[in-house]
Amino acid sequence: MPATGSAAEPVMKNILILGDSLTAGYGLPLSQAYPSLIQERLKEEGYTDYKVYAAGLSGDTTSGGLYRIDRLLQEQVDIFILALGANDGLRGIPARETSQNLQSIIDKVRHKYPEVKVILSGMEIPDIVPGRYAAEFRKIFRELALKNNTHFIPFLLEGVVGNRHLNLPDGLHPNAEGQKVLAQHTWAVLKELL
What we know:
- GO terms for molecular function: phosphatidylcholine lysophospholipase activity.
- Pfam families: Lipase_GDSL_2.
- The protein is α/β, with parallel strands linked by helices.
- It has one domain (about 15-194): SGNH hydrolase (Rossmann fold, 3-Layer(aba) Sandwich).
- It has helices at about 20-25, 35-45, 60-70, 85-90, 95-110, 135-150, 175-190; strands at about 15-20, 50-55, 80-85, 115-120, 150-155.
- Strands 2-1-3-4-5 form a five-stranded parallel beta sheet, with helices on both faces.
- The chain is globular and about 60 Å long.
């Protein structure tokens, strides 16, 4: 056993957030996107051994995330936050396809890092969308969270959707204040895993 004069360096733990424009902080400086706010909060709360990696890509769908995940798993992942699906809903991609893609992403992450802790961020389509699709889409996330025994954020955009003062002028993407709400929803679940 090597003798050293100083305390061992803390082992860094990685938090990977796989998402779309919400995670990328579309229309905002990166420092105002919720992954950066989570990193700040970790530091404030004394969790200096955690590093947040934001893999947000504007316009990305669950199939795009599935395509990207292998490359992202080259670095150790201790906590994985899956925040994809909004664009699937906007594009009307069949709920079954979205569910299969999300399941495949979770499977790949757990296969590579069996000890990983997984958080699934739920997405919803507004009830104003006619037909069964909105209800089917909403169910995907709850069912996957139960099936995979993951930690769960019921709806990442809760309280932000439809609030003009929390969104950019496009009405779709959170502004800096809206991103703070996304950070709160995420932190409420993440803090239990630290």
